[in-house]
Design brief:
By secondary structure, this protein is of the alpha/beta class. Strands 8-7-6-9-10-11-12 form a 7-stranded parallel sheet. Strands 2-1-3-4-5 form a 5-stranded parallel sheet, sandwiched between helices. The structure holds glyoxylic acid (GLV). Its EC number is 1.1.1.79.
C-alpha cells in the first residue's frame, strides 16, 4: 500500500500523520510552497483524501483527482464533502462516529454550566482581583431546567442522558418523531424553543438544517433562554444571534462553532453571558487518537477490499 497516494489537505493530527505515513504515501500540501501545483503533480497517484470538519473535498478537488476512490473524514460531520459528486462517481465516504460522542456531549453540558453559572466570567473575576472588593453576583441554576435538543441522534441522545442526570426534563425536535423515545417531541424548532430553557443544536449540517436557528427561534427561546451550539456554525444565523445577544433578547449562548471559522464576531467578546470555544468538541487526546485509528482502519479496509468500518456512502 506504500505507493497509494493519500492527500491530507491541511494538518490535523500528528498521530494520524504518523500512522498514515507507516502505510501510505501521505501527501501534505502545506509543507510545500505551491500547494495547487503539488496536488496537480500527484493527481494520478492520489487515491484517497483524508478530510476533516474544515477541509473536505468539494466538486473542484474531486474533479482534479481522476484516481480518487475514497474520502475518509477525520470528523463525524461530512458537510465539507460533496456527497452528490461522490455518489455520481462511485467514491466511497467514511467518517468517525461513536468514538467522539461522549466528548461532544460532555462539552455541551460544560458549555451549559459555563453559561448559566458564569464559570468563565467568575473565574476572570478572581484572576483580576475583583473578589477582594466584593463577592460575585448570583447566577442561574442548571439542575431541573428543561433541555431542548435539536437532533436526537448519537450525540443528541448522549446530551439527553447527561442532562437527565441533572434532573432536567428533555424535549426534542427532529425530522420525525422517534417512536422509541420517552422524551417530549415538538414538530417545529420554534415550539421546542418556546418550551425549553436550554436549546442544544446536535444535528448534522444539511441544506435543511442551515440556519435552523433563525430570528423566530431565538425570540421563542427568549431573554431567559440559552443556546448551545456543538453542531456547526451555519446551523445558526449568526448575525441574528449576535443582535439578539447584544440587545438582550436572548439569555446567553455557549458556542463551539461559528459560521466562518476561525472568525468569531467580536461583538460577542464583551458579553459575560456568552462562552466561546474554538471548535474543540472532540478535542481530547484519547478521542482524536481513536478517530485517527478509524480513519486509517477505513482506508486499510478499502484498499484490502474489505467492508468499510464506518461507511457514509
Ligand atoms: O466537528 C467535528 C466533527 O464533525 O467531528
Amino acid at each position: 500500500m506504500e505507493s497509494i497516494g493519500v492527500l491530507m489537505p491541511i494538518p490535523m493530527s500528528s498521530y494520524l500523520e504518523q500512522e498514515l505515513e507507516k502505510r501510505f504515501n501521505l501527501l501534505k500540501p502545506w509543507t510545500v510552497p505551491h500547494k495547487t501545483q503539488f496536488i496537480k503533480d500527484h493527481s494520478t497517484s492520489i487515491r484517497a483524501i483524508v478530510g476533516n470538519a474544515s477541509a473536505g473535498a468539494d466538486a473542484e478537488l474531486i474533479a482534479a483527482l481522476p484516481k480518487l476512490e475514497i474520502i475518509s473524514s477525520f470528523s463525524v460531520g461530512i458537510d465539507k464533502v460533496d456527497l452528490k459528486t461522490c455518489k455520481e462517481k462511485g467514491i466511497r465516504v467514511t467518517n468517525t462516529p461513536d468514538v467522539l460522542t461522549d466528548d461532544v456531549a460532555d462539552l455541551a453540558i460544560g458549555l451549559t454550566l459555563a453559561v448559566l453559572r458564569r464559570l468563565c466570567e467568575s473565574e476572570r473575576y478572581v484572576r483580576s482581583g475583583q473578589w477582594k472588593k466584593g463577592g460575585y453576583k448570583l447566577t442561574t441554576k442548571f439542575t431541573g431546567k428543561t433541555v431542548g435538543i435539536i437532533g436526537l441522534g448519537r450525540i443528541g441522545k448522549a446530551v439527553a442522558k447527561r442532562a437527565e442526570a441533572f434532573s432536567c426534563p428533555i424535549a426534542y425536535f427532529s425530522r420525525t418523531e422517534k417512536p422509541d423515545s420517552k422524551f417530549k417531541y415538538y414538530p417545529t424548532v420554534v415550539e421546542l424553543a418556546a418550551n425549553c430553557h436550554v436549546l442544544v443544536v446536535a444535528c448534522p449540517l444539511t441544506e435543511e438544517t442551515r440556519h435552523i436557528i433563525n430570528r423566530q427561534v431565538i425570540n421563542a427561546l427568549g431573554p431567559r433562554g440559552v443556546l448551545i451550539n456543538i453542531g456547526r456554525g451555519p446551523h445558526v444565523d449568526e448575525a441574528e444571534l449576535v443582535s439578539a445577544l447584544v440587545e438582550g433578547r436572548l439569555g446567553g449562548a455557549g458556542l463551539d462553532v461559528y459560521e466562518k471559522e476561525p472568525h468569531v464576531p467580536e461583538q460577542l467578546f464583551a458579553l459575560e453571558n456568552v462562552v466561546l470555544l474554538p471548535h474543540v468538541g472532540s478535542g481530547t487526546v484519547e478521542t482524536r487518537n481513536a478517530m485517527a485509528d478509524l480513519v486509517v482502519g477505513n482506508l486499510e479496509a478499502h484498499f484490502l477490499k474489505k467492508p468499510l468500518l464506518t461507511p457514509v456512502a
